[in-house]
Amino acid sequence: MNVNPIQLFDAESSTYTYILAAPGSNEAAIIDPVDHHWERDLAHIERLGLKLAYILETHAHADHVTSAGKLRALTGAMAAVPSGCGISPAELQLRHGDVIRFGAGEEIAVLHTPGHTGGSMSYVWRDNVFTGDTLLINGCGRTDFQSGSAAALYDSVMNKLFRLPDDTRMWPGHDYKGQSVSTIGWEKRHNARLANRSLEQFVELMANLDLPRPKLIDVAVPANRNLGLPHGA
Questions:
Q1: Helix count and strand count (H, E) for the chain
Q2: Most buried among 6, 51, 121, 126, by the most CB within 10 A?
Q3: Is domain 6-211 given the CATH code 3.20.20.70 in the classification?
Q4: Residue ranges of the alpha helices (H) in the chain?
Q5: CB–CB of 77/54 below 8 Å?
Q6: Distance CA 5, CA 30 (A)
Q7: Where along the chain do its domains lie?
Q8: How far is CA 40 from CA 7, 35, 37, 150, 180, in A?
Q9: pTM beyond 0.70, yes or no
Q10: Contact 68/82 with Cβ under 8 angstroms?
């Protein structure tokens, strides 16, 4: 049975948030919520008669602030974060191979997919993978800050994400071109940065992108390491 995630969008940072729920239980999980959309996200959850069990982060974001801390306080859900991202207030510090269980037998498999940041995680649920900033539709996340590494990202994609079944639906953490979902098979064959490119070619490509520094990085990263809450909260 195919069960689609609920995909929500923040136009300011082009961030996707996902709500995962399935028949047989009212428990749900949310991935990468954004601070100024907490009311919208809770409204979706309440409208569907769901109870939030887990709040997952793919990494400590540099372009927006998370609402994880606020949602946790309001719902009693547990925050689950990559262990390598320095998000110390979260209840669950995830490692590669962990499994998050919720609802009526639902499982989210945890993949450590570093490269965009040193701690970045992807999450596999049913026939879906949520790739954060590691793999984007026809692209990938930048690798020039927060312990980023082009070589590590290439390894994460080629040896973890691209080894998932071709028909796995790939849901990115961002999109800047109005795209919403892809498949692992399409990305393996067509991704403009990664398909048919050697490690050396990819590293050279990423080294020459010359991207501007994220405007919010000095605010967002410290806030996100505290689940989006003011320090001391």
A1: 6, 14
A2: 121
A3: no
A4: 38-47, 68-75, 150-159, 184-190, 199-207, 217-224
A5: yes
A6: 10
A7: 6-211
A8: 12, 10, 5, 35, 19
A9: yes
A10: no
Q: Roughly what angle, to the nearest 10 degrees, separates helices 68-75 and 38-47?
A: 40
Count of Cβ atoms closer than 10 Å to residue 173 Cβ: 27
Give residue-wise pLDDT tens across range 65-123: 999 999 999 999 999 999 999 999 999 999 999 999 999 999 999 999 999 999 999 99
The type of residue at 29 is A
Separation in Å, CA 125 to CA 99, 107, 140, 170, 221: 10, 6, 21, 11, 27
What is the distance between the alpha carbons of residues 84 and 118, in angstroms, rounded to a whole number?
7
Taking only the tens place, the pLDDT of each residue in 137-178 is: 999 999 999 999 999 999 999 999 999 999 999 999 999 999
Q: What are phi and psi of 130, to 5 degrees?
A: -105, 110
Token couple for 23: 């028949």
* Dist. CA 225–CA 231, nearest whole Å: 10
